[in-house]
């Protein structure tokens, strides 16, 4: 059908994305060379303590995205499917902040963490993708400290209110980025993620 990618949630029922029941999906995505965009949903309510102040969306969503990433990395998904392109919403959620903690945990408690992957998460996370929707240049810089720029795509969260009010402003306002870097983040990386023909993206009259 010419579709370049699909969106799925951060888990399906009680199953995390590392569950081998999803291996057939990952295999098809590899074979068809399509990307999967992963957005958090159905966040745990922490026994009601997240009910106030919109915290399921402000706190729960970043945690849910981090859980999905760690599940993929420690679950060996990218070892089984090295060509799979998984892009995680909201700059990977809280994963960039806890990245070193997860890698340390893998190394000091292999009995609990190293059951399904031969590589620590911080030794394979350069294979994932993320969008740029982090709301802060410092957070974007942290994300880019381990992810290649051409694996971070412009994120909008459209049409929801937690998206940037001015799409791309964080990228434009990040002083550590060159003009080439900005072009990569604003459009170049998405061309790569979705395996698009750049020459067909120009405006055409209707």
Structure description:
The protein is an alpha/beta fold. The chain is built from eight helices and seven strands; from the N terminus they run βββαβααβααβαβαα. The strands form two sheets. The chain has a five-stranded parallel β-sheet. The protein has a two-stranded antiparallel sheet with strand order 2-3. The longest helix has 20 residues, at 55-74. InterPro entries: ACMSD, Amidohydro-rel, Metal_Hydrolase. Residues 2-196 form the Amidohydrolase-related domain. Pathway: Secondary metabolite metabolism; quinolate metabolism.
Short description:
It is an enzyme of class 4 (lyase). The chain has 206 residues and is of the alpha/beta class. It has helices at 23-32, 55-74, 77-80, 95-108, 110-113, 137-144, 169-172, 179-193; strands spanning 5-9, 11-12, 15-16, 35-39, 85-88, 129-131, 152-153.
Topology readout:
Layout: E1 5-9, E2 11-12, E3 15-16, H1 23-32, E4 35-39, H2 55-74, H3 77-80, E5 85-88, H4 95-108, H5 110-113, E6 129-131, H6 137-144, E7 152-153, H7 169-172, H8 179-193
Parallel strand pairs: 1-4, 4-5, 5-6, 6-7
Antiparallel strand pairs: 2-3
């Amino acid at each position: 059908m010419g579709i370049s990618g699909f969106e799925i949630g951060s888990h399906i029922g009680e199953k995390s994305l590392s569950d081998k029941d999803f291996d057939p999906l990952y295999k098809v995505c590899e074979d068809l060379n399509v990307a999967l965009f992963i957005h958090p949903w159905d966040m745990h309510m922490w026994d009601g303590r997240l009910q106030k102040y919109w915290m399921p969306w402000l706190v729960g969503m970043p945690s849910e995205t981090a859980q999905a990433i760690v599940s993929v990395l420690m679950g060996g998904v990218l070892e089984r499917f090295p060509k799979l392109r998984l892009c995680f919403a909201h700059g990977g959620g809280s994963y960039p902040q806890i990245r070193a903690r997860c890698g340390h945990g893998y190394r000091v408690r292999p009995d609990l963490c190293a059951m399904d992957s031969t590589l620590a998460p911080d030794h394979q996370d350069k294979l994932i993708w993320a969008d740029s929707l982090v709301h802060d240049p410092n957070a974007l810089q942290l994300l880019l400290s381990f992810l290649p720029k051409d694996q971070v795509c412009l994120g909008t969260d459209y049409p929801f209110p937690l998206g940037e009010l001015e799409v791309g402003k964080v990228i434009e306002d990040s002083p550590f980025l060159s003009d080439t870097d900005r072009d990569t983040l604003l459009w170049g990386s998405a061309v790569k993620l979705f395996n698009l023909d750049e020459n067909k993206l120009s405006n055409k009259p209707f």
